[in-house]
Design goal:
The structure is a single chain. With 428 residues, the protein is an alpha/beta fold. 51% of the residues lie in helices and 12% in strands. The protein contains 16 helices and nine strands. A nine-stranded mixed sheet has the order 4-3-5-2-6-1-7-8-9, with helices on both faces. β8, α8 and β9 form a beta-alpha-beta unit. α1 crosses α16. The two termini are 45 Å apart.
Length: 428
């Protein structure tokens, strides 16, 4: 089973850097650092974009439907002309009509025909499929290399992180396809797949070994792997009741293709993580350390690290619950300043108690923006995490606890306050 690497820790560190430097006097060097940090944070917070491209009739939309686990995109001969269609995660089905130069429109449900009537530049479809929390599927319009239709394909490929070029197994990897794909940037080609579609058809099956041998020789510098797939059979295998036909799913190529897609997406995510970690270690974290140079000399390296994180908290706003939160965090800060020996269990228990107090306060409602109704659940989750950290050893749990507190403070700062200043506040 291929698992995506977690990015929460790095995103929190990047957000803390951006928060701590937000109100500093700007200069060219700082602006460049902030731009890089923001780019890393956005990449690590968003899904990996998988693009499906190919010549007309190559079966790319069917393949995208298969991996999405839903029959969303129109397939086969049809009169509905669609631009780029993005299939992404959403809590409830929705369709967004978008243009490059004006505000988008969003409709409830999947309404591709209605969306197409507005002649958009792209359409985004949101569905509640857990796998789409990690990847988004970009179904590019069909192309041909003998006319100008290939140009939009090349333009749209710049939005994807990995690509799947679909070639029809009945006449696989023609010279026109090779010509178009050779114009794709090498870094994208290196993390893309060549999917040989219609592999379930008898004429294709009879020549498949020979075709794959040829394509594997030609893939060097063009694709990371060549994968045959009988899409209709794969869809039928997963639709079997009472449970999918996993043996059929594997023999038709569905399992192999899914694993290759996840592996390519995971490799891209790891590359993004490595780049973010490098900048964090070489630039962002040292910059934060330099910011606290005017503080009193801490008594230990562990305490210094925590001082740095706590010291980067957002300044108090006209927000009663945030002000109380920062006051509670300040009490922990003072404890750290006064001691050179940190008792991990006691420290983590104090953090947990503070978070529990504010979780109960948030449950009463009325102190944060209604659009921030997800924040109480974050405090409940943090309570559980802090409890689990008490069963771990070493310095890592302490640093994780500080990261959790900093993130909760950012959440409260973002939420604002909807109560009058005179409203009674509970103590912490």
């Amino acid at each position: 089973m291929i698992e995506f690497p977690g990015t929460e820790k790095e995103v929190r560190q990047l957000e803390r850097f951006l928060t701590a430097t937000e109100n500093l006097t700007p200069d060219e060097a700082l602006e460049e650092l902030r731009a890089r940090a923001l780019s890393h944070a956005e990449r690590l917070s968003n899904a990996v974009n998988i693009g499906f491209a190919g010549e007309f009739g190559a079966g790319k939309s069917s393949l995208a439907n298969m991996l999405a686990g839903a029959d969303i995109l129109p397939t086969g001969p049809q009169h509905l002309k669609l631009p780029l269609v993005i299939v992404a995660y959403a809590d409830a089905p929705e369709t967004t009509v978008g243009w490059w130069n004006r505000e988008p429109k969003t409709y409830s449900g999947i309404v591709l025909e209605k969306a197409a009537e507005e002649e958009p530049d792209f359409i985004s479809v949101g569905i509640n499929t857990p796998a789409l929390k990690e990847i988004s599927l970009f179904d590019l319009p069909g192309s041909g290399a003998l006319d100008d239709t290939y140009k939009p394909t090349l333009d749209l490929l710049k939005f994807v992180d990995c690509a799947i070029w679909c070639t029809n197994g009945t006449n696989a990897w023609r010279e026109t396809e090779r010509h178009l794909w050779s114009q794709v940037p090498p870094e994208l080609r290196a993390n893309s797949l060549l999917a040989v579609t219609h592999a379930d058809l008898p004429p294709v099956q009879g020549a498949l070994d020979r075709v794959l041998a040829r394509l594997n020789k030609e893939k060097e510098g063009m694709f990371r792997a060549v994968v045959p797939i009988g899409t209709p059979v794969a869809v039928r295998a997963m639709a079997q009741e009472p449970e999918p036909d996993f043996a059929l799913w594997e023999t038709c190529g569905g399992q192999n293709l899914a694993e290759h897609v996840l592996e390519a997406a995971s490799d891209r995510r790891r590359g993004d993580l490595e780049a973010a970690r490098k900048d964090l270690q070489q630039d962002f974290l040292p910059y934060l350390e330099a910011l606290k140079g005017a503080e009193p000399e801490p008594v230990s390296n562990d305490t210094a690290s925590m001082h740095s994180t706590l010291g980067s908290a957002l300044p108090p706003l006209n927000n009663p619950i945030l002000e109380d939160w920062l006051a509670a965090i300040a009490s922990i800060y003072e404890d750290l300043r006064e001691t050179s020996d940190i008792e991990p269990a006691a420290f983590l228990n104090s953090c947990q108690e503070i978070v529990e107090d504010f979780a109960e306060r948030l449950e009463q409602g009325g102190e944060i923006d209604p659009e921030a109704d997800w924040i109480p659940a974050e405090f409940e989750k943090a309570t559980d995490l802090l409890l689990l950290l008490q069963f771990e050893s070493g310095d890592a749990p302490l640093k994780d606890a500080i990261s959790i507190l900093a993130q909760l403070g950012d959440n409260l700062a973002w939420a604002g306050s909807t109560v009058a200043a005179a409203q009674p506040k509970t103590g912490t």
